[in-house]
Amino acid sequence: MPSDPISLVPGAHIGDYALFEPIGSSPDLWRAEDARTGGPVALKVLSCSLSADGGRRQELTRQLQQAAAFRHPHVVSIR
Fold first, then answer.
1. pLDDT greater at residue 43 or residue 1
2. What is the rounded CA–CA span in Å between residue 71 and residue 56?
3. Per-residue DSSP letters for 30-44?
4. What is the largest distance, in Å, between two alpha-carbon atoms of the chain?
5. pLDDT of the residue at 22
6. 62: Cα within 13 Å, side-chain hemisphere
7. What distances in angstroms separate CA 50 from CA 17, 54, 72, one per listed residue?
8. 54 Ramachandran zone, left/alpha/beta (phi>0; psi -120 to 50)
């Protein structure tokens, strides 16, 4: 894991994702674009303390797997 914090500002890049703007009042949820597909995405950025906590990381992974398995024509899919 990189030790340098990522600056969360519009125009910043995290991997293949370009940040546009925060979504709502949450500082860790961003409207972004996937550079590989050019498609819009919502990107959740984990704090260093959260990503270092194995139990919380496992719980988030479990929640993401459950949400990704959910299919409905009126709900956005999670990849």
1. 43
2. 25
3. EEEEETTT--EEEEE
4. 40
5. 92
6. 6
7. 20, 8, 30
8. alpha
Question: What pTM did the predictor assign?
Answer: 0.66
Assess whether pLDDT exceeds 70 at residue 39: yes
DSSP letters for the chain: --SSPP---TT-EETTEEEEEE-TT-TTEEEEEETTT--EEEEE---HHHHH-HHHHHHHHHHHHHHHH---TTS----
Structure tokens at 1: 């894991």
CA atoms within 13 A on the CB side of 11: 0
Q: CA torsion sign, 53 to 59 to 63 to 69?
A: positive
The total number of residues written for the chain in this structure: 79
How far is Cα 73 from Cα 67, in angstroms, rounded to an integer?
Answer: 14
